[in-house]
From TrEMBL:
Top-level taxon: Bacteria
Coiled-coil intervals: none
GO biological process: proteolysis; ribosome biogenesis
NCBIfam families: PRK14553.1-6
GO molecular function: cysteine-type peptidase activity
Family: Belongs to the Prp family.
Name of the featured protein: Ribosomal processing cysteine protease Prp
Pfam family, one: Peptidase_Prp
Keywords per UniProt: Hydrolase, Protease, Ribosome biogenesis, Thiol protease
Amino acid sequence: MIRITVHRTVEGTIRSFTISGHAHFAKRGQDIVCAGVSAISFGAVNAIIALTNVKPIIQQGKDGYLHCELPSIEDTKAADHVQILLEGMIVSLQTIERDYGKYVKITTKTV
């Protein structure tokens, strides 16, 4: 199962997210659930970098591990854009969770 944890502040701002595991929906190279989660999450991170010039702190590892943490962002407009991009990512991931809930689980934690 792919586990996605979104870390939010008390105010609701996304501070980081972690993705780990594999869906095991299909054979390696044919797993549309893993491919979808990867495309959405990496697309969001790439969009943050390209469109806001914010450089998230990224850690990658084995077994589908991705951790993305936002640095302190002084520019409030850029911070707002980053949040919109991340909220869009979450909406897309929730769509996958809704359709493939046996393979994907999203949890939100307050930090």
